[in-house]
UniProtKB/TrEMBL annotation:
MF terms (GO), sorted A to Z: DNA-binding transcription factor activity; sequence-specific DNA binding
Alphabetized InterPro entries for the sequence: Trp_repress, Trp_repressor/repl_initiator, TrpR-like_sf, YecD_YerC
Entries under NCBIfam families matching the protein: yecD_yerC (TIGR02531)
Gene3D superfamilies per record: TrpR-like
Biological source species: Flintibacter faecis
Protein known as: TrpR-related protein YerC/YecD
Length: 111
């Protein structure tokens, strides 16, 4: 399984720095709507939702009933959850921590 490596390419690093510079959900909408089509962004959001559902212990069938994705997509995401670099877990855990701390919905957590 191939994963991105830190400093793999300057353009990727620059993109990530740009994303980290965003301060609010509204800024994210503005940036990502320029960067992706609605379909691309929806697909990314669905993958993220699937990862959260799988981490919460949902079965493939339960996930498919909640998110319109194929079984192969669910399998691919589950494989990343089990053998990947831990990115899904990192972000989803931080979001859960923010939820338990009563974070505001609009601001992106402080850097």
């Amino acid at each position: 399984m191939s994963h991105l490596q830190r400093n793999q390419s300057e353009p990727i690093d620059r993109l990530f720095q740009g994303i980290l510079s965003l301060d609010t959900v509204d800024e994210c909408y503005t940036f990502f709507s320029d960067l992706f089509t609605i379909q691309e962004l929806t697909a990314f959001a669905q993958r993220f939702q699937v990862a959260g559902l799988l981490l919460d212990g949902n079965t493939y069938e339960m996930v498919r009933n909640q998110v319109p994705v194929s079984s192969s997509t669910i399998t691919r995401i589950n494989t990343e959850l089990r053998y990947g670099s831990g990115g899904y877990q990192l972000v989803l855990n931080r979001l859960k921590e923010g939820d338990t701390q009563g974070s505001a919905q609009d601001p992106v957590p402080a850097k």
